[in-house]
Amino acid sequence: MSKRLNLISNHLGQNLTEHFSKSNLKTPYIQDPIDFLYLDDLLPPDLNNKRKQLREALEANLAPYVAEWYDKAQFPLDIAEKLRPLKIFGISEEKYGCRKVCPLEKSLIIYELARIDASLATFYGLTLSLVVFTIEKLGSEEQKAKYLPKLCNLDIIASWGLTEPDYGSDASSLETTATPVKGGYILNGVKRWLGNAIISDIMVIFARNTITKNVEGFIMDSRAQGVSVTNINRKLALRIVQNGNVFMKDVFVPENERLEKGHTFATGANVVLDHSRMTLAWLVAGLVGGTYEHSVKYLRERTQFRAPLAAFQLNQEKLVRILAIYQAVFLLAWRATTLLVKGQGNIAQASLVKGWSSYMGREATRLGREIMGGNGILIDNFAMKALVDMEVAYTYEGTYDVNVLVAGRAATGVPAFKAGFKA
Asked: Per the database record, which ranges form the Acyl-CoA dehydrogenase/oxidase N-terminal domain (predicted)?
């Protein structure tokens, strides 16, 4: 044995090594990080019980398949059959044949899904926080009765289209047009990064009215004449979600499929973004929580130098940094959601929480990958998958930089979005 290995062995102590070999460190259960500061005391007991029941169901019915779906960049076509029994889809009140899912319950569902896989959480958030919320908030009574029950029962799949090839952060400058004609509108343009695009039955599309110049919303049949979709392949993150490019060439959308409310970007699309952005911190919390649990398991079970990796001080320091980040992200997400429920939530709060959480989430998932060494790059060990998925969380629903500027505007009263240079 080398001098260095002797030094390490002597530092740990032979008796300590023997103790570790006899102790039961390869346990199937690792303490939930939520328990460390008893954060579940902040949750209503009924919702916390639902959260725990959902966790058990996800572990049994979805977790075993995630690695294969992710490896193949494959969206499970039987996802409706797997998710429908969980009864996790709904709207803000029990109506239109839909169950009620309050903002905190929806957030906790996203959290638990992300703990298994961020793509599944994204699918859920896309369906509820974007499509369902858009129709519930901006749609007519007829549109709500027509679409909400089908969406909440996963009888139909939907996608949500705002981003374009040339307009991401500057989404309000979109170029897709809606030209009024007899009986409806003609849509022309291209949308990019639409989740579920190739499997969707309907699409919520935001386009600029050629007469009023305002950005308005429309519910478009994905199979309407003039609609074509291509999948965005070769993604390195959120591989289970199928994102697509949507091309619209003289697509007719009936008048009754125009969203009744929110006929400007500020009162329409941006209201939806503010709502969905608030839930993204919960996705980050799920990714960090999953990273922590897998890291603890790995440190307890992996033996080097005749001792578990958990016995080394540097590893414990990294693990506790992940744990601390988790506590902070959870508390921020919980507080922001609580304010939202009270009617005190605003865009600056959502941007602060989403931006900072994803910023620190990158650090937490990087540390998890680091703890596992070479084994950390394997899909089954969660860490690298969480790391690359966190990179997406860092940039979607408003990049970190844009979110910081939204919060900065609220803090200073001075907007700083546009550069002085004009092309």
From this structure: 50-153
